[in-house]
Design brief:
This protein is of the alpha+beta class. The chain has helices at about 10-15, 120-150, 155-185, 190-195, 205-210, 215-220, 220-235, 275-290, 310-320, 335-340, 365-375, and strands at about 25-30, 40-45, 50-55, 60-65, 70-80, 90-100, 100-105, 115, 245-250, 255, 265-270, 295-305, 325, 350, 360. The chain folds into 3 domains: about 25-115, Immunoglobulins (Immunoglobulin-like); about 120-235, no CATH class; about 245-375, 3-Layer(aba) Sandwich (Glutaredoxin), CATH 3.40.30.10. It is about 40% helix and about 25% strand. Keywords: Cytochrome c-type biogenesis, Disulfide bond, Redox-active center, Signal. It is found in: Cell envelope. Its main location: other.
């Protein structure tokens, strides 16, 4: 895969970026229909949590405030005096963008069905929702089917089929997101899409080119600068980069350095005993290991388990019959490897070639088998 350099336009804009931005005043006006008495709306931010609330009187409410920069938030409606809760679940809510101006919501009966108008970013977001609604519905149906399947019936074949269906939908929605970004380069919504396309495990080779499509003003915004800094870190562990070395102990206390495995292909597998998806993927990794272990290939398991979970870690190794070298650190997720590889979610893996270069990342299911078959002919 080719590397993509971040635009030098950021440097040209640098003198302006340090200037403080005046807070923008926003107003949210809602008019709802069939709403129970004693209802309230709660506004919260994914990172900051609770922001504000207001009572709904005769179906109407108003929220006012200021924001230092545009922000995506969730507005939640709770009926009959129920208390606010951050976890939305099946709650009645709607996603909004806080920015300068008045945001209008109208609905016959719920926030989830509200029509949102009034400011540029909210108009952009409604366009995106209309574009992706059919695929989002398919995602929801696939997830519902997965949840409805008992764990004992989630066989490797079932998981592979689910992964393939999920990946097919992800490919379609990724194309839709990329198209939206291309036609809305000056929208903060597009920046949020670039971030979302990097979840739960960001791939620098995919998100950096999309970030490059954004207008200089969006790249140079506070949120854009923060994400550019993340990309700079991700680049150090992207395909084509030299794999950062680290040293961690095995269960027996032997120190193992990644560099000591140089000369063969190594799959660095980040996992933990409490990670369900990691455990479900283990049979596939075992299959790959048994197929190629005699052909210049090995696996190095790096656990995020903490010292207090040592017994559970060892039990998971035994229960899943993992034959390759395992290492961990008493500090769990704070270990050296986790920091150097920018691990924010698991399962996650990196395939390193005999020269210590990262040649692939996050190989799952059949893709792991196919990649190894091509490299180890």
């Amino acid at each position: 895969m080719k590397k993509t350099l971040l635009p030098l336009l950021l440097l040209a804009a640098a003198p302006l970026l340090g200037q403080a931005q005046a807070p923008a005043q926003f107003t949210i006006k809602g008019q709802l229909g069939k709403i129970a008495a004693r209802s309230k709306v709660f506004l919260y931010d994914r990172e900051k949590g609770y922001l504000d609330s207001a009572e709904v009187k005769n179906g109407a409410f108003v929220l006012k405030g200021t924001v230092a920069e545009p922000a995506q938030v969730t507005l939640q409606l709770l009926n009959n005096g129920n208390r606010y809760r951050l976890r939305t679940g099946q709650a009645d809510n709607v996603v909004l963008y806080l920015e300068k101006g008045t945001i209008n919501l109208q609905s016959p009966d719920s926030l989830g069905r509200a029509t949102v108008t009034g400011t540029p970013l909210n108009n952009d977001y409604r366009q995106l929702q209309a574009l992706t609604k059919p695929i989002q519905s398919q995602f929801e149906a696939l997830y519902a089917a997965y949840r409805a399947t008992p764990k004992e019936q989630r066989t490797p074949e079932f998981m592979q089929q689910s992964d393939e269906q999920n990946e097919a939908l992800r490919q379609i929605i990724s194309q839709q997101y990329a198209a939206f970004i291309g036609t809305h380069p000056s929208s903060v919504v597009s920046l949020d899409l670039v971030k979302e396309m990097g979840l739960p495990v960001p791939d620098y080779t995919k998100v950096a080119p999309l970030f490059a499509l954004l207008a200089p003003a969006v790249q140079g915004s506070p949120a854009g600068q923060r994400y550019a800094a993340e990309l700079a870190i991700l680049k150090t562990v992207s395909v084509g980069a030299v794999a950062p070395d680290f040293t961690l102990p095995t269960p027996e206390g032997k120190a193992v350095a990644l560099s000591s495995l140089r000369g063969q292909y190594v799959l660095i597998d980040f996992w933990a005993n409490w990670c369900g998806p990691c455990r479900e993927e283990n049979p596939n990794v075992i299959k790959a290991y048994n197929t190629y272990k005699g052909r210049n290939f090995t696996v190095l398991g790096v656990s995020l388990d903490e010292a207090k979970a040592r017994a559970n870690w060892l039990k998971a190794i035994a229960d899943d019959q993992l034959p390759w070298t395992q290492v961990a650190n008493p500090r769990g997720g704070e270990n050296e490897a986790v920091k150097r590889y920018h691990i924010q979610a698991i399962p996650q893996n990196f395939l390193i070639d005999p020269q210590g270069i990262i040649v692939a990342t996050n190989l799952r299911g059949a893709e792991l088998q196919t990649t190894l078959a091509q490299l180890l002919k």
